[in-house]
Predict the 3D structure of the following.
Amino acid sequence: MSTSTDTNPAVPAQRAAGRPKADRTTRFGEGGGVLNVFSHGFLAVWALLIIFPLVWVVLGSFKTDAQINGSAWSWPASWGFDAFTRAWSKGIGGFFLNTLIVLAGSLTLTMLLGGMAAYVLARYEFKGNRAIYYLFVAGSMFPVYLALVPLFFMVRNLGEITPLLGLNSYLGLILVYVAYSLPFTVFFLYSFFRTLPTAVHEAAMLDGCSHTRAFFQIMVPMAKPGLVSVAIFNVLGQWNQYILPVTLMQPTTAGEADHSMLAQGLVNLALQSGYKSDAPALFAGMTIAMLPVLVVYLSFQRQVQAGLTSATLK
Amino acid sequence: MRHGKYPFIVGFLFLPIVLYVGLVLWPYAQTFGYSLTDWSGQSQEMNFVGLDNYAKLLDDEVFLGAIWHNLLLLILLPLVTILIALFFAFMLNVGGKGGTGGIQGVRGASFYKVVFFFPQVLSIAILAVLWGAVYRTDGAGLANGVLIKLGLADAAHPVQWLSDPDMVMWCVLAVLVWSGVGFYLVLFSAAMQGIPKDIYEAALLDGAKRGQTFLKITLPLLWETVQTAWVYLAIVAMDAFALVSSITPGAYFGGGPDHHSELISTYLMRSFLRNGEAGYACAMGVVIFFFTLILSVVSLWATKRDRIEY
């Protein structure tokens, strides 16, 4: 073990890393003392920049309106949950439910249709295969709002055929989400299906397995890591989607049910008078919206990070 | 083996293609058509006006300003985010004083990674409301509160942040960097972990310092990842709609004060949903299309390097 570590008692934890390498007297990064303090400081400041505003918002939901409008440094006088009840009654709960309904549908359909298309394109030779693949890839290059104006009218016209699909309908938004998630999903799963071994599939075919069954019972389980990565990517993407619901999920006539997504609803409430005189409820609403994400993120952070990065690195 | 292959292929491809062509490609194509008309969006009436909309765009001060703001974001956002993220990723992966093993991150690396990444999973709407509260123009806003506490701002004249025409774009940029760094940090970390440790150890034996290792080894080996990051950030910079439309002042999709934070996307949405100029809005969409196209070609060409195998 190196003895020179003793010169800097501030970093004892490095021994725990325990890489069983040969003894070494030179240290990597030696002579970077100033840099070390500086960079540690920078890391700590950045961490503070992230944690502090979030804690401040959570604290805000326990303050009174006067406190919030008075000073940024006020401390909550009581720890009641009134603001949370008020936020919930202003529709946050409904927005939450809307988002869950849409995400459940759109995620299932995206994975199913995207997986099917990617599999066929990756594993079957037929005329036009490459053309269809490039058609999908091209779509992931352009910003959504390029298509926004015609999309709005297309969805509205669909609604005139069947009210199930029109503006402000869950199913309409689900299909739009699916369509706009397809390019990336197909692109990613295509390369994933190509890396899987062919032998298992061939054996199953020789045993008389049908193509469909081979996909669902052999290929899907084998492709699970890739599917999970894309699913996480899609959940975050669709959860954060804002411009599509703003365009498509507005009540077309007065008195129609409000089917706003959570993101959209929260911004509307912040902009409208709904919270003008009730800042604690706005902060409580934000806390409510953040909490489930925080819990999911902290419990799955390894998979979320791995999934997101492998999805972009492919 | 061959029996049933084609029905199967058609069956699996039919629905995805119908959805994709119908809801994605067809609207894209229609945008081009509508951009040549004076369609208002409210009625079915429209007249073919040729390239009039495009000529009008060239004279539109607001639109030219919006392009300028988009360009500003397009250059600064990737640059700042990637630099900070690369620095952090290097610190967290190989920047530590590797006393026993040579190569490792600083203390608490995994804690930092979890914290830095968190803004990425927050919905853009939460970001918007959160930063709206931080950037309040009176002493009750967090940013002003901190500055006043530190004695850097006068309580009687707090900083105007988003209401200050000269500051608003910088405030927007700060939020985008704040939320983006964590993702690219994790992205670069994953790529750095793919670099074999032997290379670092060889450099170490040759007496390389940390700065040298970073410039001569890490950066060249990460180049492809940096390229990917650049393209993704450029897409974010071209959009930025959700954030700008909800935190900047201005009725209907923000862009204020007095168009000082106007982006092509916010102007497009206002022209379409508010001003009843759907044809004009489509012309903007087409401009964005060519913008993105040129951008991807140029960035791919400018950052082209030989692939390093390891």
Q: What stands out?
A: Chain B touches chain A through 113 residues (CB under 8 Å).
